[in-house]
């Protein structure tokens, strides 16, 4: 598969802190797919995605976003992608609309387009009554929804989310999942890490499992099951078996 | 565990927390306990030298003093009390709003009145300990040179520390009852920021209006003050008499402070639980923003707009700015007086303005450069980091220009040459403060503004020396231009040294 056909192509990506966090990782995510990246705590998921998003400089390797070399031309790569972390980073003293106006301004989006899009996003996430309230009194779920709306307001082709459902109530989680699926249906690409395996099982087109900084399994749920030799195994069972095997090998 | 043992255990827990908080403040959160203690002891030892220079000449002072000396001494003690009150209000606010253990404590089977009495005592002791730490070198020098009678000074410091803590608890609790939990936090922050400086500035204002000088001692040592001061037997002079070695009065003051603290504990400790519960039950008040259409503009404009909006809505900055504005009040009055007559004292305005600009710029630069609440968002935005930095520095320059342009414009009418020198010095001091923040940038939440000085001691000192240096250079440029070259060079050298050892360069 060539880089041009991939939303994300990572080759030999390496990052060391005290020990290797990401170890010569190769990863390809196709355009228009929902990709779930799973792994135990400390496996290197967040480090990988932070390097892809341009938040962390890799020690070695390449990152290509829709054919753009993200390390050589980060500005062009950032123009077409969005990053949402597990801890919603928004400004307490801004209202959701002001926050989205700021994000749209940073991405250079025409205000006539972005204002309409911002209102639609916030309404679809159930934030209509709070459009002009400052975010300082918002719950974690509301803050996460504002952060997600900020990530989507510039209509990115690639959306990277690190544990976006952590701490959300069932209704908020449903809002977020619905919006992400809508984006994928509209041709967008989503890469998401999660510890909620049911979400990956239900939503992801393909699943990657990462441990000790390396991709140890990848495929559709059916492919993973086939590899496991049983068609009724849950993702949770497969995940635990894979991680245990990797830990034993290490 | 018996009730007494339980209380003793909780008191130990409180003091351990207070010690660790203080240590974290001193070390900037880094685990350098031994180095912090050694540093502190070294600092305290070194402090004996300036203490000697300041107080050695007063070792022979005894009551009765002449009225002017008595007024100055009493005013100094009152200033110390005001500063302790300011620190104590800040501590009490933190107990109400920031301690993460309140849910645990309130859900435990312990008697809350006792628990909160200990917490109040811990605040009082923390405030007093800090004051004792700073005053010890001065009292040591006086005791060494003047005899044991000066030991009474420790009692006075303790008494004003305990009474300031008691007053702070009463003020904060009353504020809470009067204006509610939502507003108390902001008002208490502003009150604590302004209260210490307010007294000094008020003296300066009186001095400017009455004597045309910026010296805060002008009024205190005036005949008018001596005339209206009460007689030597008045209670007003008790703190001064106690600090001069009157042990009987010192013991009375200490007892009064303890009684005051006891009363405050008895009255407010039972209500602490209610207060804390009301704070927890009252999330931040819903503040409505103004609904308006999205605006056009470049990416840097979006950044500048966001920064300016956040600065306008930042309560920390509000209190900080209020302090700077208060400091500017005496020079502004001086300027106003100078229009009615010629006075060489107007030259003194320049260093005050430049110093205030440097300090305000340092705070603003920290808020815009280091205090970014959504660093990932800005870092993943499609614009180069250099343009982000430029936009943030521009915000600092715009804010400083907005605050200081009217003063410089007024100065231009009185003395155009001085206005030009002042304007140039403000720009240089602002640029220097922003540069220091860039070199020592450490990502933090805006809410950590209060502790920004602890993230890097070198940055704090570099910022302070730069402001002082440029203020001195500007003053010298107006009076002894040749000396300004030396002062300017020394300030540049300070900045170059800071740059050389900054993590940005490494």
Overall, the morphology of chain A is globular
Number of helices of chain B: 19
Number of strands of chain B: 0
The DSSP helix count of chain A reads: 9
What fraction, in percent, of the residue positions of chain A are helical?
25-40%
- Anisotropy-based shape of chain B: globular
Which residues of chain A form runs of ≥5 with pLDDT under 50? none
Main features:
heterodimer; A: 250 residues; alpha/beta; 4-stranded antiparallel β-sheet; 9 helices; 10 strands; B: 506 residues; mainly alpha; 19 helices; 0% strand; globular
Task: Describe how the helices and strands are arranged.
The complex is a heterodimer of chains A (250) and B (506).
Chain A: E1 6-16, E2 20-30, E3 34-38, H1 45-52, E4 60-65, E5 68-69, H2 74-79, E6 81-84, H3 96-106, H4 111-124, H5 140-152, E7 158-162, H6 170-185, E8 189-193, H7 197-203, E9 206-211, E10 214-219, H8 221-228, H9 235-249
Parallel strand pairs in A: 3-8, 3-9, 6-7, 7-8
Antiparallel strand pairs in A: 1-2, 1-4, 4-5, 9-10
Helix pairs in contact in A: 3-4, 3-5, 5-6
Chain B: H1 3-27, H2 33-55, H3 67-97, H4 102-107, H5 112-146, H6 152-211, H7 217-220, H8 223-228, H9 238-243, H10 247-281, H11 299-312, H12 315-338, H13 349-370, H14 375-379, H15 385-414, H16 416-439, H17 452-455, H18 457-479, H19 481-500
Helix pairs in contact in B: 1-5, 2-5, 3-5, 3-6, 5-6, 5-10, 6-10, 6-12, 11-15, 12-13, 13-15, 13-16, 13-18, 15-16, 16-18, 18-19
């Amino acid at each position: 598969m060539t880089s041009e056909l991939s939303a994300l192509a990572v080759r030999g990506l390496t990052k060391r802190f005290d020990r290797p966090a990401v170890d010569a990782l190769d990863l390809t995510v196709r355009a228009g797919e929902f990709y779930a990246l799973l792994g135990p705590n400390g496996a290197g998921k967040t480090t990988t995605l932070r390097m892809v998003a341009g938040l962390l400089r890799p020690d070695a390797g390449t990152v290509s976003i829709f054919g753009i070399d993200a390390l050589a031309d980060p500005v062009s790569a950032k123009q077409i992608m969005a990053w949402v972390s597990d801890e919603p980073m928004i400004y307490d003293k801004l209202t959701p609309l002001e926050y989205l106006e700021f994000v749209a301004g940073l991405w250079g989006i025409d205000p006539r387009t972005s204002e309409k899009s911002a209102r639609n996003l916030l309404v679809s996430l159930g934030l209509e009554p709070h459009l002009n309230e400052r975010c300082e009194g918002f719950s974690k779920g509301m803050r996460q929804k504002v952060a997600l709306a900020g990530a989507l307001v510039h209509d990115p082709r690639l959306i990277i989310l690190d544990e976006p459902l952590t701490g959300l109530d069932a209704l908020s989680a449903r809002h977020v999942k619905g919006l992400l699926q809508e984006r994928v249906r509209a041709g967008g690409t989503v890469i998401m890490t999660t510890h909620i395996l049911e979400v990956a099982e239900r939503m992801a087109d393909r699943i990657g499992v990462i441990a000790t900084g390396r991709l140890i399994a990848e495929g559709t749920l059916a492919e993973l099951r086939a590899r496991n030799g049983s068609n009724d195994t849950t993702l949770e069972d497969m995940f635990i078996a894979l991680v245990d095997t990797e830990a034993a090998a290490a | 565990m018996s009730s007494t043992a339980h209380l003793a255990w909780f008191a130990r827990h409180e003091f351990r927390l207070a010690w660790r908080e203080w240590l974290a403040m001193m070390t900037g959160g880094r685990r350098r306990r031994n180095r912090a203690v050694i540093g502190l002891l070294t600092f305290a030892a070194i402090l004996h030298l300036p203490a000697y220079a300041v107080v050695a000449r007063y070792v022979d002072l005894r009551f009765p003093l002449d009225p002017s000396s008595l007024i100055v001494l009493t005013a100094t003690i009152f200033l110390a009390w005001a500063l302790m009150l300011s620190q104590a209000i800040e501590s009490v606010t933190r107990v109400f709003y920031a301690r993460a253990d309140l849910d645990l404590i309130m859900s435990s089977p312990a008697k809350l009145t006792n628990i909160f009495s200990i917490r109040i005592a811990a605040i009082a002791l923390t405030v007093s300990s800090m004051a004792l730490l700073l005053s010890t070198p001065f009292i040591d020098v006086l005791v060494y040179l003047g005899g044991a009678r000066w030991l009474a000074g420790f009692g006075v410091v303790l008494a004003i520390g305990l009474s300031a803590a008691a007053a702070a608890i009463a003020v904060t609790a009353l504020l809470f009852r009067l204006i509610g939990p939502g507003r108390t936090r902001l008002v208490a922050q502003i009150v604590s920021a302004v209260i210490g400086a307010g007294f000094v500035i008020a003296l300066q204002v009186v001095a400017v209006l009455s004597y045309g000088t910026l010296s805060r001692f002008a009024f205190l040592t005036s005949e008018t003050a001596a005339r209206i001061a009460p007689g030597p037997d008045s209670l007003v002079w008790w703190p001064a008499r106690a600090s001069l070695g009157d042990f009987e009065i010192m013991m009375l003051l200490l007892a009064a402070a303890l009684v005051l603290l006891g009363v405050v504990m008895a009255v407010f400790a039972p209500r602490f639980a209610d207060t804390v519960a009301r704070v927890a039950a009252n999330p931040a008040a819903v503040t409505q923003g103004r609904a308006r259409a999205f605006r056009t503009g470049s990416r840097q404009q979006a950044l500048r707009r966001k920064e300016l909006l956040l600065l306008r809505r930042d309560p920390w900055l509000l209190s900080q700015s209020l302090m700077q504005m208060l400091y500017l009040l005496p020079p502004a009055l001086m300027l106003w007086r100078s229009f009615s007559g010629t006075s060489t004292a107007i030259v003194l305005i320049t260093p005050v303005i430049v110093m205030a600009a440097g300090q305000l710029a340092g705070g603003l630069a920290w808020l815009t450069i280091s205090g970014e609440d959504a660093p990932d968002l800005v870092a993943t935005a499609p614009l180069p980091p250099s343009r982000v930095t430029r936009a943030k520095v521009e915000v600092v320059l715009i804010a400083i220009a907005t605050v200081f342009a009217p003063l410089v414009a007024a100065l231009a009418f009185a003395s155009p040459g001085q206005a030009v020198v002042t304007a140039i010095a403000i720009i240089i001091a602002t640029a220097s403060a922003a540069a220091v923040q860039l070199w020592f940038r450490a990502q933090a939440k805006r809410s950590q503004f209060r502790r920004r000085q602890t993230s890097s001691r070198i940055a704090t000192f570099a910022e302070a020396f730069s402001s002082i240096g440029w203020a001195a250079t500007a003053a010298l440029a107006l009076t002894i231009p040749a000396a300004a070259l030396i002062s300017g060079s020394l300030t540049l050298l300070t900045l170059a040294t800071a740059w050389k050892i900054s993590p940005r360069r490494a």
